[in-house]
Amino acid sequence: MATEATILVVDDEESIQKLLTYPLEREGYRVVQARDGEEALRRFAEQPVDLVVLDIMLPRLDGLEVCRRLRGESSVPIIMLTARDDEVDKVLGLELGADDYITKPFSIREFRSRIRALLRRASVLGAHDTTTAGLRVGPLVIDPVKRTVLLDDRPVTLTYVEFEVLRVLASQPGRVYTRRALLEAVWGDSAFREPRTIDVHIRHLREKIERDPRDPELILTVRGAGYCFRDQ
C-alpha cells in the first residue's frame, strides 16, 4: 500500500473520473475530484494537495489557465491530460509549468507509472536526497534537502521537474546526460515520454538561473549528445 498522498483529479467526464480514481484509491492514495477549472482551484486552496492530474479541456476555466494559476503559488507536481495527440497542447502545458503530460486514450498502467514516478521523487513521500551535498557555483546555491535555489541570495522559484533536472545535472558537474538519461534520472524511467520535453525544462531553467539564457554559463549543451552542468 502506498504512503497516503492526496491527488487532485480534474476532469469533467464522469467516466474518466471513475477510471482514474479507482486505481489510485486501490494503491492507497486519497483522491479529491473536481469537474471544472474553478472548482479545481477551490479544492486546491481548501487542503494540502501532493499532485494534480489536470485535463486541458475543462468548462469555466481551461486546464492551461488552471496550470498557470497553480504555478503562480505552488510547485506541486502537475500531470496534464489531453484528448488530442497535439504537440501544441503538450508544449503549452510544459511552458506553463506542467511536469508531465499524458495523451488520451492511455493505459491505466501508463497512468499509474507516471503518478508513482512523480510521487516517488517528491518530498511528500520522503524522497529527499539527503546524500547530495549542497552546491554553490558562483552566485547560484542549490540545497537538495530543502529543495531551494538561490541566485545572488534571492530565491528562485522552480517547478518540481525543473528542480529535479537541475539537481541531477549539478550533482555531477561535467557529466554529459542524454535526454533519455535525464528522463530516467528524474522519473525513474523513460517509458511513454518524449525526450524532447527535456529541452523545454532546460530552457525554463536557463531563463531562471542564467545571466544570459542565450549564452548559458551553467547548463551547457553538448551538441549531438545532451546536456551537462559546468565543471568548476
What does this structure look like?
The chain has helices at 14-26, 37-46, 63-71, 87-95, 108-121, 160-171, 179-187, 197-209; strands at residues 6-10, 30-34, 51-55, 78-82, 100-103, 135-137, 140-143, 148-151, 154-155, 219-222, 226-229. With 232 residues, it is α/β, with parallel strands linked by helices. Strand 7 and strand 8 form a beta hairpin. The protein starts with 5 loop residues before the first strand and ends with a strand. The model is unreliable at 124-132 (pLDDT under 50).
Q: Spans with pLDDT under 50 lasting ≥5 residues?
A: 124-132
Q: What's the Cα radius of gyration?
A: 18 Å
Beta-strand share of residues = 15-25%
Structure annotation, total helices: 8
**pLDDT averaged residue by residue:** 85
Which structural class do the helices and strands define?
Answer: alpha/beta
How would you describe the oligomerization state of the chains in this entry?
single chain
Strand order of the largest sheet: 2-1-3-4-5
- N to C succession of SSEs: EHEHEHEHEHEEEEHHHEE
The biggest sheet, with number of strands, parallel, antiparallel or mixed sense and barrel status, is: 5 strands, parallel
Structural shape: globular
Distance between the termini: 43 Å
Number of strands: 11
Report the helical percentage. 25-40%
